[in-house]
What we know:
Elements: E1 4-14, E2 17-23, E3 29-32, H1 33-38, H2 44-51, H3 54-60, E4 69-73, E5 84-88, H4 89-101, H5 105-127, H6 133-174
Helix pairs in contact: 3-4, 4-5, 5-6
Amino acid sequence: MTESVRAxxxxxxxxxxxxxxxxxxxxxxxxxxxxAAECVGLSERNAREFLQSKALKTLLGEGYTPATxxxxxDAGQVRGGSRIRALPLEVVxxxxxxxxxxxxxxxxxxxxxxxxxxxxxxxxxxxxxxxxEAERNELLSQRVQELEQxxxxxxxxxDEARIERxxxxxxxxxxxxxxWGVPGAGDE
Length: 188
């Protein structure tokens, strides 16, 4: 059983998304399993299944054991139940990356925008550029929106080709033709 830990809750902006962030007594951060999934348009069950998958061990190493926590938010900070299943940020990142690799367009946009922001923060530091968190969130929101549009357009051609292929495959099968069969093999 997972041990319950008291944590401090704060709202965290990730571009246009707002999530509940938790800081544990040791200073580490967590995000709820449910919100990690919702950020990329999926259900909590999907995140839970990811924790039990080989994909997590592939991304974070064979010896990695997911350190989920049950968090009890400080009094007055509870929005639903009194306990929250929370994930370390490295697991949230691995989950979003895995979803992006599996073709989840929302996850792909979010991961690409966050990666760009991470690089931009380092370049800003090297060049002495100072931006407020509000400016960074606005830039991140814009990037996510632009990437979602670009990705939708890029995948549109693939989606259209798949729809057309499926249509013709169905049509051939309805007429007794195996679209993937070897021509003339059934004539002998």
